[in-house]
Amino acid sequence: EGYVLYSDDGSYIRFRCMDLESNDPVCSVPVELVIPKLTKEILSIIRDVARAGDFALTSFTGEDARLIGKPVAPAYLERWPDIATLSSMTEFRDWLVDTIGYRIINR
Asked: What is the pLDDT along the chain (107 residues), one digit of tens a residue?
Protein backbone atom coordinates (compact mmCIF):
# COMPACT_ATOMS: atom_id res chain seq x y z
CA GLU A 1 0.00 0.00 0.00
CA GLY A 2 1.07 3.54 -0.42
CA TYR A 3 0.50 6.91 -1.94
CA VAL A 4 2.63 8.32 -4.73
CA LEU A 5 3.09 11.80 -6.14
CA TYR A 6 4.45 11.58 -9.72
CA SER A 7 6.07 14.48 -11.58
CA ASP A 8 6.19 15.07 -15.32
CA ASP A 9 9.97 14.49 -15.34
CA GLY A 10 9.53 10.88 -14.11
CA SER A 11 10.51 11.59 -10.51
CA TYR A 12 8.27 10.60 -7.63
CA ILE A 13 7.75 10.64 -3.89
CA ARG A 14 6.21 7.48 -2.44
CA PHE A 15 4.77 7.19 1.06
CA ARG A 16 4.47 3.51 1.93
CA CYS A 17 1.82 2.80 4.52
CA MET A 18 -1.42 0.98 5.05
CA ASP A 19 -4.73 2.21 3.73
CA LEU A 20 -5.42 5.50 5.46
CA GLU A 21 -9.13 4.62 5.61
CA SER A 22 -8.22 1.87 8.12
CA ASN A 23 -8.92 2.33 11.81
CA ASP A 24 -5.56 0.80 12.71
CA PRO A 25 -2.91 3.20 14.07
CA VAL A 26 -0.18 4.28 11.66
CA CYS A 27 3.14 3.24 13.21
CA SER A 28 5.51 4.15 10.40
CA VAL A 29 5.47 5.62 6.92
CA PRO A 30 8.63 4.94 4.93
CA VAL A 31 9.28 7.61 2.29
CA GLU A 32 11.00 6.81 -1.00
CA LEU A 33 12.29 9.64 -3.19
CA VAL A 34 13.29 9.15 -6.81
CA ILE A 35 14.22 12.67 -7.83
CA PRO A 36 16.80 14.48 -9.94
CA LYS A 37 17.35 17.12 -7.25
CA LEU A 38 16.30 17.66 -3.64
CA THR A 39 14.24 20.84 -3.95
CA LYS A 40 12.48 23.06 -1.43
CA GLU A 41 9.15 21.87 -2.86
CA ILE A 42 9.99 18.22 -2.16
CA LEU A 43 11.21 19.04 1.33
CA SER A 44 7.99 20.97 1.94
CA ILE A 45 5.84 17.97 0.95
CA ILE A 46 7.69 15.67 3.36
CA ARG A 47 7.60 18.33 6.10
CA ASP A 48 3.86 18.87 5.67
CA VAL A 49 3.09 15.14 5.83
CA ALA A 50 5.27 14.75 8.94
CA ARG A 51 3.55 17.68 10.63
CA ALA A 52 0.04 16.53 9.68
CA GLY A 53 0.70 13.05 11.03
CA ASP A 54 2.68 14.27 14.04
CA PHE A 55 5.51 12.00 12.85
CA ALA A 56 9.13 11.96 13.90
CA LEU A 57 11.55 11.52 11.01
CA THR A 58 14.05 8.70 11.51
CA SER A 59 16.84 6.95 9.71
CA PHE A 60 16.06 3.50 8.30
CA THR A 61 17.49 1.86 11.43
CA GLY A 62 15.75 4.33 13.75
CA GLU A 63 19.03 5.39 15.32
CA ASP A 64 18.75 9.03 14.29
CA ALA A 65 15.46 10.90 14.82
CA ARG A 66 14.31 14.44 14.17
CA LEU A 67 11.20 16.55 14.54
CA ILE A 68 10.43 19.44 12.22
CA GLY A 69 9.86 22.78 13.93
CA LYS A 70 8.19 21.56 17.10
CA PRO A 71 9.24 21.03 20.71
CA VAL A 72 10.36 17.58 21.80
CA ALA A 73 7.62 16.01 23.92
CA PRO A 74 8.42 13.42 26.63
CA ALA A 75 6.96 10.56 24.57
CA TYR A 76 9.52 11.20 21.82
CA LEU A 77 12.36 11.29 24.36
CA GLU A 78 11.32 7.91 25.77
CA ARG A 79 11.69 6.31 22.35
CA TRP A 80 14.59 8.41 20.99
CA PRO A 81 16.62 9.94 23.86
CA ASP A 82 18.80 11.90 21.41
CA ILE A 83 15.97 13.27 19.24
CA ALA A 84 16.40 16.86 18.09
CA THR A 85 14.35 19.48 16.28
CA LEU A 86 15.11 20.74 12.79
CA SER A 87 14.27 24.43 12.78
CA SER A 88 14.82 25.31 9.10
CA MET A 89 14.56 23.81 5.65
CA THR A 90 18.35 24.09 5.33
CA GLU A 91 18.82 21.98 8.48
CA PHE A 92 16.25 19.47 7.15
CA ARG A 93 18.03 19.19 3.79
CA ASP A 94 21.46 18.87 5.41
CA TRP A 95 20.20 16.17 7.78
CA LEU A 96 18.72 14.18 4.88
CA VAL A 97 21.83 14.48 2.72
CA ASP A 98 24.52 14.13 5.40
CA THR A 99 22.92 11.76 7.90
CA ILE A 100 20.26 9.78 6.06
CA GLY A 101 22.18 9.66 2.80
CA TYR A 102 21.23 8.75 -0.73
CA ARG A 103 22.27 6.67 -3.67
CA ILE A 104 22.55 7.61 -7.30
CA ILE A 105 20.44 5.57 -9.71
CA ASN A 106 21.13 5.76 -13.44
CA ARG A 107 17.85 5.89 -15.31
From this structure: 678 888 888 888 888 876 667 777 666 778 888 888 888 888 898 888 888 888 888 888 888 899 988 888 898 899 999 999 999 999 999 998 898 887 776 66
Burial of residue 66 (number of CB atoms within 10 Å: 0-12, 13-18, 19+): buried
DSSP per position, 27-87? ----EEEE-SS--HHHHHHHHHHHHHHTPPEE-TTSSSEEEESS---HHHHHH-TT-EEE-
Q: What is the pTM of this model?
A: 0.76
